[in-house]
Amino acid sequence: MLAMEEAKKQLILEDLQWFKGAKDYYAQIGKPWKRGYLLYGPPGTGKSTLVAAMANLLDYDIYDLELTTVKNNKQLRRLLIETTCKSIILIEDIDCSLDLTGQRTEKKEGDDEKAGEKDPLKDKTVGEKEAKDKKKKGSDVTLSGLLNFIGGIWSACGEERIIVFTTNHVDKLDPALIRPGRRDLHIELSYCRYEAFKMLAKNYLRLESHPLFETIGTLLEEIDVTPADVAENIMPRSVKATTAEDCLKKLVVYLKKSKKEKKLKAEQELLLEGGEKLALGEISGGPVKRTS
């Protein structure tokens, strides 16, 4: 069971169940029978776990696609054709896979250059830079090629597929990648709060309630920790006599320590900010020597 808010979990469940039985609907509207998901949030919030749960629910295969190992758009198309129906195509950390936004920016800058005004020396330098960048990234996949992969004519090959992007930094993605029609459902997986903690306690400790739940719930509202952090701290460490209460107490100690560290960090940042303002004030307000 996933550690997330019940309403969000129900939304995902209903969407997947609708998609699985929507073959006739997609045929009626003349669109490929596919669905796009964007999962975003800090590391450790369960993005990969959610994809695995989706595959288990639907009984689909998972294709984990690493874009940096794909040589070019042609190979990307071939990979799409080779994937089977009833599958999830997963591209993790899409913002880190390729500098897709940068490629489009460079193209725009090149289009703005006027014919006949090229500097041969500059062209040579740019060519050398592009060759180095190409060697570094090891892939010629373009933004256009990826867009065709997920939403163009090539995406119509096959049916009953779900294409999932994950990212820790949704603000870094090109808007063309995540617009409606390409990413049908955007799901934020955030830090662990009380509802998610109760699910973890039920899964890991078989607990529905405990006097320490209230204390833990209060602490979770005051600091940001991931479900992975919480799970790590409530998991029994040995087969010896480690009770559920011992695990909860260990979590409380961890959360209080994290809260203390957060407070200390905030105080240090405040002192640093105050010191910088003081230094600037002394510089601007100090005596000015004039020479003639």
Would you report the number of β strands? 5
Spatial order of the strands forming the largest sheet: 2-3-4-1-5
| SSE pattern, N- to C-terminal | HHEHEHEHHHHEHEHHHH
CATH class category label of the largest domain: Alpha Beta
CATH architecture of the largest domain: 3-Layer(aba) Sandwich
Structural class by SSE content: alpha/beta
Q: For the residues shown, what is the average pLDDT?
A: 81
CATH topology of the largest domain: Rossmann fold
Count of DSSP-assigned helices: 13
List keywords for this structure.
292 residues, alpha/beta, Rossmann fold, five-stranded parallel sheet, 13 helices, 9% strand, ATP binding, At3g28540-like_C, AAA+_ATPase
Outline of this structure?
The chain is α/β, with parallel strands linked by helices and 292 residues long.
Write the layout of secondary structure elements.
Layout: H1 6-20, H2 23-29, E1 34-40, H3 47-58, E2 61-64, H4 73-82, E3 87-91, H5 94-97, H6 100-111, H7 120-137, H8 143-151, E4 161-167, H9 175-178, E5 185-188, H10 194-205, H11 212-222, H12 227-234, H13 244-285
Parallel strand pairs: 1-4, 1-5, 2-3, 3-4
Helix pairs in contact: 10-12, 11-13
Describe the overall structure.
By secondary structure, the chain is an alpha/beta fold. It has two domains: 143 residues, Rossmann fold, CATH 3.40.50; 86 residues, no CATH class. Helices cover 56% and strands 9% of the residues. Strands 2-3-4-1-5 form a five-stranded parallel β-sheet. Helix 10 runs parallel beside helix 12 and helix 11 packs parallel to helix 13. The longest helix is centred in the C-terminal third of the chain and has 42 residues. The radius of gyration is 26 Å and the shape is globular. About 6% of the residues have low confidence.
